[in-house]
Design a protein that fits this description.
CATH architecture: 3-Layer(aba) Sandwich
Strand order of the largest sheet: 1-2-3-4-5
Distance between the termini: 46 Å
CATH class: Alpha Beta
Structural class: alpha+beta
Number of helices: 4
Number of domains: 1
Order of helices and strands: EHHEEEHEH
Largest sheet: 5 strands, mixed
Number of strands: 5
Shape: globular
Helix content: 25-40%
């Protein structure tokens, strides 16, 4: 298995895995068109740093995110981590997180932030990977009419 930086040329391949994963494992309702639009936004954002996980030249997972500059530190915001369902619970996600930490740290980032679905499965994975629930930030939202 190997990791590589993702670029615009990988958008279609990432989008297919994204839609397949969310529709089959997370009760999503993604069309390929919507998935492609979302992936394009992450890949083309300024300061994006996205990685693909490959086994035998097949994309089996990815992380999508970008660097964020603060007044005193550089951070990395992890928007998405997806591992193909048939490869889950085999250490691939943990491997990707560890490698991501090395890369963003070497680029000068001192923190990785993310928002997660509030489920036991997701919380277990992130806590196992060393993430903690932030005490000073809450996620807020507002549906518009």
């Amino acid at each position: 298995m190997n990791l590589k930086r993702l670029s615009k040329k990988d958008i279609n391949e990432i989008s297919r895995l994204f839609a397949d994963y969310y529709n089959n494992f997370e009760d999503g309702n993604w069309t390929l068109e919507k998935a492609t639009k979302r992936i394009s936004q992450y890949i083309t954002i300024n300061e994006s740093m996205c990685l693909g996980l490959y086994e035998n030249q097949k994309l089996i997972g990815f992380v999508l995110g970008y660097y964020k500059t603060f007044d005193d530190i550089l951070g990395y915001y992890l928007e998405e981590i997806v591992i193909d369902g048939q490869y889950q619970n085999k250490g691939y996600g943990s491997f990707v997180i560890k490698e991501l930490e090395k890369i963003v740290s070497s680029d000068g980032a001192s923190i990785i932030e993310l928002s997660s679905v509030n489920s036991e499965k997701h919380m277990h994975f992130y806590k196992k990977s060393g993430f903690y629930i932030s005490k000073n930030i809450i996620l807020m939202g507002k549906f518009l009419k």
